[in-house]
């Protein structure tokens, strides 16, 4: 299953975990109210209105594991009045609307979340013999770890839960139909990179990865999110997170947010409900421990760098007539050429929301024009004027392919549709999709460099893992005064047998920190080349989308 993850940064003042979680819940529910009232304006690009249908499935949506394929369980969020909260491996149901159908205040939500934290701490403090007498309800059974398993195994485990006891089916239904999930964590990540890594791959027993999105709030008040990507794309979640970030940093939003509790007493607030389970012995003794161990093992291999390059930003790049996205993509290509010693297949995501139900298309950055520039860029004694000319052509070609992808004229989704249609009709893929050259071009999920531009949200960092064990994931944002990056890789010590190619022709193993250093050097070199040779008064932008 493919997930995305992200974290919020640059909070000007720390707050407690319960208060941060309460703010997060309240502001997200405000956004839901805006959606229900159709107060979220349609998004546009170049004067074209974008499809907004994915917004309809942000809330009360869950991916359900089944054979032969998963399905989505969706209910009308207007009929749901609660969220789910994961804490210490337990799941609680928290009502977010009062009896008058008004959103709870931040103060009320903080009271309820403190109750969850304290109740979990109390249960943890009990001797094991006493906990065993609580009819299983107090045990942190980490059922959420099942959602981290391979989909077929999770489908079998879920079916076993449903068949074993109706109590399990009720608990599953509550989680799956809840508006969204909040995960309360005791850890306190100290750096942006550690915060992002915790959001990506930690504590599977305290998650429900099938939910459309789940917030992760840490002991020091930092917050991030984990998103199920098959349900919706990053452009949609970004819009909601932008609202959330603005509310964090400036509470003067469209709704009056009451901070203090109206009730001041749990007498008026029914306590959150602790969901109960009755689990088969095989699930508790074998399946869940295995799921926890596998996730911990795989998650420990993830390497991540979260960093800003304050030397460059949109303002500085545009002063040199450079389009920021093209500049970053050329930097990625030069860095990749240097560390891998060859051009490698590269994926850049582009959306197709100018069309009804549009999702994404691939912008293929590696072209003959890019390769011609790369082969000359670092060549000793190369004619600099010729290098500049080749760079311009590479940038112009990137612009053409970007526009083609955004306007529905890319090739990858078309090929995917043909492959699926052929598989459904014949049961086997056509020869094109099994040809080695198709994989070498990145087809079939074989892109060594996987990239995505998430600009316009300076306090938000997004990311994803690489497509391949030996690949690199690069999520970046182009802001006025800096470029932000979340770069991911896997531990090279685990990849000796997984790097493709015959002996002597394998790709070098590259880590996220190594690629980040090469990338920033590439930016310096490209900018210096441009600064020396571009006539900023006479020339038009080399590439603009």
TrEMBL record:
It comes from the Eukaryota. The active site is at residue 229. The keyword Endoplasmic reticulum does not apply. Residues 8-495 form the Choline/carnitine acyltransferase domain. Pfam families: Carn_acyltransf. The keyword Cytoplasm does not apply. One of its GO terms (molecular function) is acyltransferase activity. Coiled coil: none annotated. Keywords: Acyltransferase, Transferase. PROSITE patterns: ACYLTRANSF_C_2. InterPro entries: Carn_acyl_trans, CAT-like_dom_sf, Cho/carn_acyl_trans, Cho/carn_acyl_trans_2. Belongs to the carnitine/choline acetyltransferase family. This is Unnamed protein product. It comes from Phytophthora lilii. The lineage of its organism: Eukaryota, Sar, Stramenopiles, Oomycota, Peronosporomycetes.
